[in-house]
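ok so for the tutorial part 2 we go from a plain amino acid sequence to predicted C-alpha cells. step 1 is just haveing the sequence, like this:
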Amino acid sequence: MELGRIIETPDCVAEGADWLCAREPRFAYALTLTGPLPLRRKPDGFAELLSAIISQQVSVASANAIRGRMEVAGLMTPGALARARDDDLRAAGLSRQKMRYARALAGAGIDYAALRVAPTDAVLARLTEVPGIGVWTAEIYVMFALGRADVFAPGDLALQEAARMLFDLPDRPRDRALRQMAEAWSPWRSVAARLLWAYYHVAKDREGIA
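step 2 — the prediction. this is what the C-alpha cells look like for a chain of 210 residues:
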C-alpha cells in the first residue's frame, strides 16, 4: 500500500516548497515573503482529536485554557472521559455540545495505530464518522498528526483567501474550486497549504485583513 511521502522534518517541507516554487512562480514569490515554512507536525492519537474538538468556535487562548484544565483534571484519555461527570467537564470549560462530541470520540474505538498506515481516504472516512469531527478537522489531523504530504483542506477560509490574493482571483474560491486548483500541487499539497497559510498571515499584516 502506497501512502506517499510522510513529512517528518523541516527538510521535507523545504523539499516540497522547492518543488512547488519550480512549477508555480506565484508560490516562489510567496516564499520570498514568508521565508522558510514551519514543520507543524503534532502527535497523533486521541488527545489531538479531542483538542480539535475543544478548539471549535473558541479563541486559541480559550482553547488552550480549556485543554489545560482538562489535562490537570486527567480528562484527556478515552477512559477518563467516559467516566467523567457532566459537572467535571463543565468545570473544565466544555459546552454541552462539546461534552457530547468528546464522549462520542471517547467511545468511537478508533485504532490510531492503524490510521498511520491506512489510505488517506479511509482515514478521513473513519474520522468523519464521529460526531463533532468534520471534513476540515479530519484533513488537518491527516496533514499534521499523520504527516501526509499530499493532503489539502480546501474548506479552510484562510486558504481560500490566500489563494484569492496570491493568484489574483476575482472572488474567494469555494471548497470545490480550490480542491480542483490544488490538484496541480500534488504530491505536495500539504506544503502548498503551509505556504498559503504563511502567505495569508504576511498579507494580512500588510493589508490589515480582518
